[in-house]
Amino acid sequence: MTSFDDWLNEPVSRYLPCFILGGDDGHQLIPVNAAIWAIWFEGSWPQRQVAYTQIDGDSSVSTVFIGVDVLFESLSFLNGRPDHMDRYESWDEALAGHQAMVDNIMARTT
Fold it and tell me: What is the pTM of this model?
């Protein structure tokens, strides 16, 4: 039977790459195994949110760090319903994509 400590010490998988955020700015990708990712993910909500923009009462854009398979993801909501999703490989790409999605929704709603 595998112990919890054994699970935490598993090598990083090349089949299911998992990452957490770290580094001096908190935006650098650090490869970890699935156990470390799960523990970090559970308690890292404020750190994982790249950006959130409320455009009006029913429209918004949310961009977050996922860290498994998909690194970053933006999802827009238009009139309270999911509208569009984009995925990114880095924090900076996600931030730029977030703004582009906000601009797109604002152009469509004004």
Answer: 0.85
